[in-house]
């Protein structure tokens, strides 16, 4: 669509309007005034001129992009000259003309028309700039363009292409993210999507994705970055002893592991109360304990012992200083060790409920089995069978194992069927 | 029509509608072997009331009323038990068998099958239908006159004595007491009197019913080794004896089961210090107190005390229906017109079958059942059966029988050559 030539009057009006600017609403009201002159209604109605109109003439809201603060300075306009102004004016005029419902053509057209022949104020610049301006779709097309947003004008910064496009594949990543930083989509050359997908669609992309910015990332801790950290720290380290080249040797020579944590934070104080906590870990197999001592120690420490890994963990934090906590944990270990070796008088009262695992000897099961067998033997008139003989017999051993398995491991199908078989053999039941 | 049915069912299920061999089952029962597995055998109703004055599951009783016949399915656990009983040495101490399994799999019906077999064989059956009834919901608790620490339960004891008398008349006449028993200050039972008098004393004087039960058990235990009779002690829900009870004394303190006379005496009966019989028990979570509903294994339900008391015992697991058993049961219901087919009124056969057999039937079997159903429908005319409405109470309820029954209901005469 070829735009109508800019009326010279309009151009001149715009130039003049700067001189008699009225408050902040420089462009619109003055233009309106200029355009239709005596119709004040136009000034209000021309507000929708802020709406960009494309070639199609449909109302299209201003596209997404950085919101530009309406510039109220008259200065730049004068500097930029008539071209920008004319563009504004032209657009406004066009907008005004096409939003027919709002503007009464009756008001406009005679006014415009009447103006036309009188003062050819629009220069060639207006004419030439209009088509260029009319081709603009969004506010951010080129440098130095001014976008109308509502009653104010905004400067549109052009969007530079993201840094990712200029990144080489073999670049030094630790210079992109030298420290912990938020996720910058323009700096991370990965096509990441995150978030809940639209129905039938995909998760949102990384541009402007708050989900990616919120979460912690480790882009500053890639292996090459860590290598650099280690290289920097190496100056402060000593050599690893060559004799300790396997875990077992470490375990054997240094069975006790002490764990402490140091805290660094930016703030006025270098102290952190959490730094006093000391954790001592030791495997009970590396301590010299007999069966009774081990059971007693496990009962003494309670929750601090892990059955699967055979590790005793003592955590101390009752003293204010780390050194003191360390000493205390070593003291605890020593005391536990020595106490578990002692046998108190009252330990002989240990009952069946206190036992850690099921022991068949002197249990009800053993008693029942022996009684039953003795009765069976008595009914068969076989005498002189001693308990020891019975206990040593194969069937009883089998029975004993099955009962122990049943009690210690719990009831499974296999355990129960094993028990059944052993009882059948014990009682000599034939099917 | 019968022929048509047989044709369809023959191929899949060894179930007949043949009524002629009803009476032959009496001799056959002793010959039940693995080949009869899955089949249903009939118990004549008069015998049923004689052998089972108490002890049948409620749903089975309802089914008996509905179908006017009692059919018990022959299943593997029962066959196994019967084999053990047949081969057991009665001079050895009594062997204890514990039937266990998940809910609704047929433990009580297995027990009933064994009880029926033993009573057929002429054993004296001491059948305690549900030991849980003795540890809960007792209205009256009297302090025992025999032992100050114990408590009597006159109502439960008298009910049990009545049923026991009904099922074992013959024995009560034959067996004589070996000691003189004093009931209170004035009454006594002399030595050498038939046990029937003890039972009648218990029934007449309800206060001494629990002691009468105790005396009865003691006498039977002492005399069983002689060999004049075989004693079967059948206890359903034996885990009640070593569990907890919900009863309270007058001062609101809880009652331990061993403080109850009945429980105390029964526990003594379950020890294997006597010979000349067998002890068959069932574990039951249904009706148990303070046990989680998922518990079904011996140790879980018996607890430490119970396990130690019953040890060594032979555990007998009872699983759900196998496909063959399920088909047998299904065929029986079809034959009895209990299940409606989809062409008739009522709920659709396919859908209903799927719902009913959920626990037991995999999808493969569901399809097979559908096929069965459609075959049935195509061969018969589309008739609408006036069948009582089915209440689908859960996956394992086969109408009209419920829980234990899916496993063992619906007897049909086995096609056995006599």
Number of strands of chain B: 11
User: Mean pLDDT of chain B, rounded to whole units?
Assistant: 79
The termini of chain B sit apart by 26 Å
Strand adjacency order, main sheet of chain A? 6-7-9-8
Structural class of chain B: alpha/beta
Our estimate of the beta-strand percent of chain B is 5-15%
Percent helix of chain A, as a range, is 40-55%
Overall radius of gyration of chain A = 45 Å
**Structural shape of chain A:** elongated
Question: What are the segments of chain A in which pLDDT stays under 50 over at least 5 consecutive residues?
Answer: 21-142
Pfam families (chain B): DAP3
Protein name (chain B): Small ribosomal subunit protein mS29
Subcellular location (chain B): Mitochondrion
Keywords (chain B): Mitochondrion, Ribonucleoprotein, Ribosomal protein, Transit peptide
What does this structure look like?
The complex is a heterodimer of chains A (431) and B (418). Chain A is built from 17 helices and nine strands. In chain A, 43% of the residues lie in helices and 7% in strands. In chain A, strands 6-7-9-8 form a four-stranded antiparallel sheet. A three-stranded antiparallel sheet of chain A has the order 3-5-4, with no helix packed on it. In chain A, helix 2 (27-36) crosses helix 5. Chain A is elongated, with a radius of gyration of 45 Å. Chain A starts with 7 loop residues before the first helix and ends with a helix. Chain A is α+β, with helices and mostly antiparallel strands. Chain B is an alpha/beta fold and 418 residues long. Chain B is built from 16 helices and eleven strands. In chain B, the strands form four sheets. Chain B has a five-stranded parallel sheet. In chain B, strands 1-2 form a two-stranded antiparallel ribbon. In chain B, strands 5-6 form a two-stranded antiparallel ribbon. In chain B, strand 7 and strand 8 form a beta hairpin. In chain B, helix 1 packs antiparallel against helix 15, helix 10 packs parallel to helix 11 (261-269) and helix 14 packs antiparallel against helix 15. Mean pLDDT of chain B is 79; it is low at 1-27, 344-352, 357-366 and 380-418. The interface between A and B is medium-sized, with 29 and 26 residues. Chain B: It holds the Pfam family DAP3. Chain B: Keywords: Mitochondrion, Ribonucleoprotein, Ribosomal protein, Transit peptide.
């Amino acid at each position: 669509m070829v735009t109508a030539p800019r009326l010279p009057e309009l151009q001149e009006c715009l130039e003049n309007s700067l001189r008699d600017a009225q408050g902040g609403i420089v462009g619109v009201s003055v233009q309106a005034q200029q355009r239709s002159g005596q119709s004040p209604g136009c000034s209000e109605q021309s507000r929708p001129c802020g709406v960009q109109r494309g070639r199609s003439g449909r109302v299209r809201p201003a596209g997404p992009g950085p919101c530009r603060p309406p510039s109220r300075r008259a200065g730049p306009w004068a500097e930029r000259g008539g071209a920008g102004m004319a563009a504004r004016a032209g657009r406004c005029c066009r907008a005004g003309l096409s939003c027919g419902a709002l503007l009464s053509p009756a008001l406009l057209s005679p006014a415009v028309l009447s103006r036309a022949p009188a003062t050819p104020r629009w220069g060639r610049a207006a004419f030439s700039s209009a088509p260029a301006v009319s081709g603009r779709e969004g506010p951010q097309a080129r440098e130095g363009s001014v976008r109308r947003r509502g009653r104010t004008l905004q400067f549109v910064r052009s969007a530079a292409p993201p840094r990712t496009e200029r990144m080489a594949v073999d670049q030094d990543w630790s210079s992109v993210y030298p420290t912990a930083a938020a996720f910058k989509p323009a700096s991370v050359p990965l096509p990441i999507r995150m978030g809940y997908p639209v129905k039938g669609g995909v998760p949102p992309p990384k541009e402007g994705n708050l989900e990616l910015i919120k979460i912690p990332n480790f882009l500053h801790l890639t292996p090459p970055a860590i290598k650099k950290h280690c290289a920097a720290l190496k100056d402060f380290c000593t050599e690893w002893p060559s004799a300790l080249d396997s875990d077992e040797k470490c375990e054997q020579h240094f069975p006790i592991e002490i764990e402490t944590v140091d805290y660094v934070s930016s703030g006025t104080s270098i102290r952190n109360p959490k730094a006093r906590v000391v954790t001592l870990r030791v495997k009970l197999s590396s301590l010299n304990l007999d069966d009774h001592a081990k059971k007693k120690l496990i009962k003494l420490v309670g929750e601090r012992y892990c059955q699967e890994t055979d590790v005793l963990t003592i955590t101390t934090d009752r003293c204010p200083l780390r050194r003191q906590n360390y000493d205390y944990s070593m003291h605890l270990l020593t005391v536990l060790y020595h106490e578990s070796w002692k046998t108190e008088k009252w330990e002989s009262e240990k009952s069946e409920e206190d036992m850690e695992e099921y022991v068949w000897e002197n249990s009800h099961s053993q008693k029942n089995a022996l009684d039953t067998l003795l009765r069976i033997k008595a009914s068969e008139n076989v005498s002189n069978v001693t308990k020891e003989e019975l206990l040593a017999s194969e069937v009883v051993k089998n029975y004993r194992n099955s009962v122990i398995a049943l009690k210690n491991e719990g009831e499974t199908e296999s355990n129960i069927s094993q028990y059944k078989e052993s009882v059948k053999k014990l009682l000599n039941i034939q099917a | 029509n019968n022929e048509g049915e047989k044709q369809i069912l023959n191929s899949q299920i060894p179930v007949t509608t043949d009524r002629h061999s009803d009476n032959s089952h009496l001799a056959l029962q002793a010959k039940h072997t693995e080949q009869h597995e899955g089949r249903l055998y009939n118990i004549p109703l008069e015998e049923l009331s004689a052998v089972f004055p108490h002890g049948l599951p409620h749903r089975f009783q309802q089914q008996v009323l509905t179908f006017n016949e009692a059919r018990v399915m022959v299943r593997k656990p029962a066959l196994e038990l019967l084999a053990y009983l047949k081969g057991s040495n009665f001079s050895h101490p009594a062997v204890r068998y514990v039937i266990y399994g998940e809910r609704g799999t047929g433990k009580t019906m297995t027990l009933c099958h064994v009880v029926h077999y033993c009573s057929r064989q002429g054993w004296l059956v001491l059948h305690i239908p549900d030991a849980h009834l003795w540890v809960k919901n007792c209205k009256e608790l009297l302090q025992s006159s025999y032992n100050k620490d114990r408590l009597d339960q006159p109502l439960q004891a008298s009910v049990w004595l009545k049923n026991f008398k009904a099922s074992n008349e013959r024995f009560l006449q034959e067996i004589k007491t070996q000691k003189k028993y004093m009931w209170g200050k004035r009454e006594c039972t002399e030595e050498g009197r038939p046990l029937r008098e003890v039972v009648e004393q218990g029934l007449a004087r309800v206060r001494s019913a629990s002691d009468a039960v105790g005396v009865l058990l003691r006498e039977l235990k002492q005399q069983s080794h002689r060999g004049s009779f075989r004693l079967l002690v059948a206890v359903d829900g034996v885990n009640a004896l070593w569990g907890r009870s919900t009863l309270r004394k007058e001062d609101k303190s809880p009652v331990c089961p061993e403080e109850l006379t009945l429980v105390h005496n029964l526990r003594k009966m379950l020890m294997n210090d006597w010979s000349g019989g067998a002890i068959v028990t069932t574990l039951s979570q249904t009706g148990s107190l303070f046990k989680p509903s998922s518990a079904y294994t011996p140790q879980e339900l018996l607890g430490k005390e119970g396990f130690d008391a019953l040890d060594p015992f032979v555990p007998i697991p009872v699983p759900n229906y196998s496909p063959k058993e399920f088909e047998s049961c299904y065929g029986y219901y079809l034959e009895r017109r209990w299940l409606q087919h989809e062409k008739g009124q009522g709920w659709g056969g396919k859908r209903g079958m799927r719902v009913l057999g959920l626990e037991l039937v995999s999808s493969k079997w569901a399809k097979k059942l559908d096929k069965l159903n459609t075959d049935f429908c195509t061969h018969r005319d589309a008739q609408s059966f006036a069948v009582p409405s089915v209440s689908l109470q859960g996956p394992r309820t086969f109408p009209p029988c419920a829980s234990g029954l899916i496993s063992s209901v619906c007897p049909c005469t086995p096609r056995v050559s006599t």
